[in-house]
Amino acid sequence: MNKLLKILGLAVPLSLLAAQPASAISLVFNPVSQDVALGDPAKVDVIVTDLNNQLVGTYDFNVHWNDSILSLASVDFDTFLDGPFDSFQGFDDSVSGTVNVFEISLDLLTNQDGNTAFRLFTLTFNTLANGLSPLSFTDNIASTGEFLGDENGDPFVPPVSAGRGSVCVGGNCQQSQPIPVPEPPVVMLMGAGLLGFAFNQRHRRAGVR
Fold first, then answer.
1. What is the pLDDT of residue 22?
2. Which of 156, 154, 57 is nearest to 106 (CA)?
């Protein structure tokens, strides 16, 4: 009986561990933020990380930026989806401030090990004006609402986590921090405290007279 209880005691924690959801794969910009001089190019890598023993067989998503500050100069694909010879890859930048980038592997993904972060592609931007351009992703894989697919083309579970980035052109892009406004209950408490203090001071002065 004791032996059975020990086995059951081991089995329950193991089953709980197995039930834990897998961590989400992350799609990120590298560098997350950078400063460049007006007239100099800005280069941003798009990286897949937190793979957790999974392979990426396809991707299709959009990257967005401020088209008054940056313009896309080039998209340079890496080789981790077996490209350029054993993958189908391309991009569409017909919408200003947006590029749709896609690739699907036609081979065995031998350039990935399932755990090491890797680069999908590099975006090079021309700088048009001083200012801060946010960078962001939106998903585009048809019918799945996802960014990436596994070696079979299926979306990942849990869904991919998409990061954000920025490019500062010309410096002085630090946004001023807003002065924190107290929440209404805090304001009311402060007001009540001040009224009480004023009443007490008046009462004390009247007593002195």
1. 65
2. 57
